Amino acid sequence: MSRTTRSSCSRSCRSLLGLLLCLTLLLGMSGCGSGGDEAPVLRVGVALYSQDDTFISALVQHLERLAREEEQQRQIQIRLSVMDGGSNQTTQLEQVDRLIGQDCDVLCVNIVDRTAAAVLVDKAEEADIPLIFFNRQPVAEDIARWEQVYYVGARAEESGTLQGQLVLRSWLSDPEVDRNGDGVLQYVMLEGEPGHQDTLLRTAYSVKVLTDAGVSVEKLAGESASWKRGQAMLKVQQWLPELGEDIEVIFSNNDDMALGAIDAYREAGLTLPVVVGVDATEPALESLRNGELYGTVLNDGKGIAQAMMDLILALTDGSDPADAVELVEEHYVWLPYRAVTLANVDSVMDSGT
Q1: What is the pLDDT of residues 321-335, one digit of tens each?
Q2: What is the rounded distance in angstroms from the CA atom of residue 257 to the CA atom of residue 260?
């Protein structure tokens, strides 16, 4: 019997009438009785940190598409309840409470504030609802609080390393990147949320690649733009009057902010430096094809959504999650990053990121 069926029975069989309803459901699931045509329902709660994030929005679209495909293949109903936390952890906690109250079979959480993960884990455990964190990684201690907690995403340090390799390749192959000819790479850094692990690791590892390779670097400026295109544009507009043509490279912790930097240069009528982002969103790939963005790093939203769906189905049909996905340390599903440049952008776009 699937977890969905067990959950339905446990909630209904509290009276004689409930027992009769439960027996009817079980007979219907086995093809006996008049209820045989009723497709079982799988309820999945999806709590997002912000649906305004281009990457997160695309990931949810992949998840919705997969749900429709699985409905057809398995003759079930998959009801995704998607809630937008609006970058407010209090709001997200209230939304998770509502999803638990809706008797969801699995919770998928793109957490606003990773320090709140323990509260969410405890709520899920108390309700006996498996919890899948995705894209925004809680600390290991919180993931380990309960055996039914999982994380699906990619290793942030890998994305920073690939960014650094993109810039290193450009620096070594194109003398014009060194605009002032001083042999020092002058850069600015557009950072995501302060304290977020992706912000910290992408920022550190991107520059570490250069210094490990013996490149002299100078950081001209660096500020948080909280992953947002508009905020990044404003930050770069503030830098341009003072720094102007001194900026040789713009590191951005994600594509939306990289595009904001490009917007600022375009409005000012200045020649773009090397600009690199992370995510390989559709707008970023278009910018790359147009010769504006130098490179990005594919964050496999399609793969993350597929791993989440595989986990959801395994957790609700009684099978072993380790048979459905490649689990690391019993809790983690890691997706690889991939560098994207003009040389391979067409293949990436054709694959449907």
Answers
A1: 999 999 999 999 999
A2: 5
